[in-house]
Amino acid sequence: MSDADPLSALLHALSSCPAVDGDVLFINGIYGPGVDVQSTSWHVLQYFKTEAIRWPDRAILLQDDGLGAGRYDRVLVLISKQHDASRRDLAVAARCLRSGGVLLAAGANDAGGRRIEDDLRALGFSTVSDSRYKSRVVEVRCEGGLHEDVLQNWISSGGWQPVLQEQFVSRPGLFSWDRIDVGSALLAAHITADLGGCGADFGCGYGFLSAHILNHCPGVSFLYALDVDARAVEACRRNTAFAGDRINCFWHDLTTMPPALPMLDFIVMNPPFHEGSLTHKELGRAFIRTASSCLRREGRLLMVANNHLPYEDVLGESFSTVAVTTVAQGYKVIEAIR
């Protein structure tokens, strides 16, 4: 279990920097002590709903495309664990920094923090680094001479791209971004063509299960696809565009009740159970409770989970029938009737 705290490392470094009057960009920004959440000069690129809701709406950015080159006096980055995604974040940060501006980047030592300094040097920066809270924080100043070819390559390799023989588009940083994960493949194999009515894909990711249902279940009249990650919502929207008005993709934290959903006939889900390097069975249990509240009486829940995760008790609290239909490859497929 990691107790690294890259946010504290980043904010400690920030407290040592002179104050600036200009704009500040915080990539993957998390609110914490020392962050001026009310300041109109802070802009926050944050894809996860659970973190974005802590900031004023006016501060939140959901896309890194089109951020103003050379606009920001200071750019802060909490790096992603996935290397292509973190390199894109650093390249976007470098592009946005004005001449003379300061970039601070931090990450946990066991989640990519040790490579930040090498990556920033590869972009052409001279670096100053510090280690605290089991994290690495690196400071650079924009003084020209960046390696534009490296910067552009990292922005491209961390962005939208075709995957799975160009059947889908996705991007690094999403769950199993360039492949079909074992659990989702197993669940898809057990979704029968007679699935029908109005349903939802909880934690839709880039849209593999949503696309499978819309392609193979003609009785499905409408599908809601929900995810906590705004990038996943956009990916799912792109990957199910063929379905037209049969689907609505939206951004939501499924540990809480979604607004304005009708009572559903079915829900499919491959709930997350990791948060960083930690395993949190409570994430899946919260998904199950939300699903129960969204299903009509006799509605169906079809889910897949790692075989060792103990979900049967919470399923038994809210569903009249619970059956493990398949156990394979370390996963179990569960069908529950409301």
UniProtKB/TrEMBL annotation:
Keywords: Cytoplasm, Methyltransferase, rRNA processing, S-adenosyl-L-methionine, Transferase
InterPro entries: DNA_methylase_N6_adenine_CS (IPR002052), RsmC/RlmG (IPR046977), SAM-dependent_MTases_sf (IPR029063), Small_mtfrase_dom (IPR007848)
Location of the Methyltransferase small domain: 167-334
GO terms (BP aspect): methylation; rRNA processing
The protein, known as: Class I SAM-dependent methyltransferase
Single GO term (MF): N-methyltransferase activity
rRNA processing keyword on record: yes
Biological source species: Micavibrio aeruginosavorus
